[in-house]
Amino acid sequence: MTTGILPTAADDAPAARPAAGERLHEALTLEMDGEVAVVTFDLPSSPVNVLGGVAAAGFAALLTRLERDAAIRACVLLSGKGDGWIAGADIEQFLAVRTAGDAEALSRQGQALVDRIESCRAPIVAAIHGAALGGGLEVALACAWRVATEHPKTTFALPEVQLGIVPGMGGTQRLPRRVGLQAALDMILTGRTVRARRALALGLVDDLVHPAILREVALRRARELVAGTLGRGGRARARSAGSFLLDENPLGRTIVFSKARESVAKRTRGHYPAPLAALDVVHDGYARGMEAGLREEARRFGELAVTDVSRELVYLFFATTALKKDAGVAPGVEPRPVRQLGVVGAGFMGAGIAAVAARKGTPVRLRDADHARVARGMDAVRAVLAEPLKKKRLTRLEHAQQLALVGGTAGWTGFRRADLVIEAVFEELALKQRVLEEAGTHAPEAVLATNTSTIPIARIGEGLEDPARLVGMHFFSPVHKMPLLEVVEGPATAPASTATAVAFGRQLGKTTIVVGDGPGFYVNRILAPYLNEAGWLLDEGVAIDAIDGALVRWGFPVGPFQLMDEVGLDVAAKAGAVVGDAFGARLAAAPALRRVLESGRPGRKGARGFYAYDAKGKRDGVDASVYAVARGGGSAATAPSATTRPTLADDEIVRRTVYPMLDEAVRALDDGVLRRPLDGDVGAVFGIGYPPFRGGPFRTIDALGAATVVDALSALAARHPGRFAPSERLSAMARDGARFHPGEGRPVG
Question: Does the annotation count 486 as an active-site position?
Fold first, then answer.
């Protein structure tokens, strides 16, 4: 086995040298190295290589040449992109599909191309640097040998289920035969990304090398294939006895498929058909052979491609892709490079921000008021950084390098050179103002950011000498797991400050939206009516688990009461108070929520909230005594019994809680907090777990029809004065039959 040393961040140069040989096609260049053709795939006018119509024509021409030209004995396939191999299928082409039959035909075309790669007279060696995703991985699986670089950018995945479809170019059949059933199902059913070292261990790749010698080793393997000293198909996969028993015999596979089906059903709750379809296709390939499996793969690909679920997930794909290119400011404004980060506040949020920054290679100075708090913060940083080490996604050397990037202080040493300082102290206006004023003095050149979740940036910046330096960076908890970042522009925020926050958010791997200033900004503002209305339902006596259950069945990962327990009732109450004070009766907190908090129930962190928790923090059912507290009583005697509680259908609970959220999203758009519906959809999905298969609040309004939402809200407003009245814009859209997204699939700005 060929191995190499792990490259540093400086080793990001393209693995392939620019090809100077024969232009075989507009996307493919061929040069001969003896009897081996070295082919460079570099799709013009595209930052990544994708397998669309242009690429398919190029590969067809290549394969014809390899099959007919006797002087070519083998082939090495390189990418001309600096940090990517083949990123998968062309989603633009996918969007053009209108019928299941058309989608099935597209899959069969892709399968035929991959079959030709696998059976080609001249064996093809995949020389992989960067991401091999979807169709890219399917091409690699069909190659005779796979050499990959040991580099953080070299990753492998079949992410199709995340678009609501199954792999369509043979991945459901070749991957299990390459890495084994269990490992393949883990990748296919989740879309999970595998790093290079794990790929080698699985048998997904055959050699792991430094980028500098990728071409050399790939050429060597090609010549060995020609000489017959290597066999086509790659190295034999090492298997444990347990793996053999489960993967290689019918009884074992029955157990694996049964457990996988159970897990998928629990995870998807019936909302996402693709994982179960993929499971069926893999099973079919084992039961009836590869050809039958490929036919079933194409058929199910076709069926899924035209579902509403897939369309909404594809929309979110394009929306998040659009955000990656959006600097949040006018063209020409350059962000400040963040080479040194300062974080003030070593609590849960501050430590989380510091840890995520260190993961991405940014030196961090973490400050708090005394050494004891700093020590606790550093412990929290170490805990976050240890997680990938425990999961073997990180080497001990890499882990040590990340730890070394974070230093703690009870003073301001190390802040003078900071390019960005983020405060993450308690949600108290005076405290934030004081901390930021001090930070501005000790880091005179830095952009200043506040991690406030609800307090307007304008108010926080009132005491600053230069409020143009101040921008909001609202991270979500826990920082290392939640993907969203709200960058908040205050009325005085300089465009360069916004650009710096956006660029740094992307550097951290966050999905970043830019929002305008205002109480609660966007995400917490739309969350307020949702949580409040759950409280009003509780006040009416509706069971907590009935409310949570209805909204989980609608698609949320957790219900509103479990969510409040998780974030802390005190935190939720502070955010709710800011929003309620700003917007009045429409968003005023329900009395039941206030009473529960005042009773000394902080949520999971205090082992008691709406739910009870055991000594290990595991949720242990609804705390029955909370009903009496919520209704203002001091004992269970005042609580309604299970038999006397009002019963509401799931649809009614959804109308009561979700529809006000939809309307508030529209109001945020009208108020200029949102720039466009796209930001609102992405913010809700990635910030509060809004069901991805519904596309986001604005996509949901389009799907339901504005008139349906307005009629439901108007009926509720008649029964509950002060709440539910629909916004002017939504009412006008109902009258006009208007939509937020008139197009299909691709987001409209």
Answer: yes
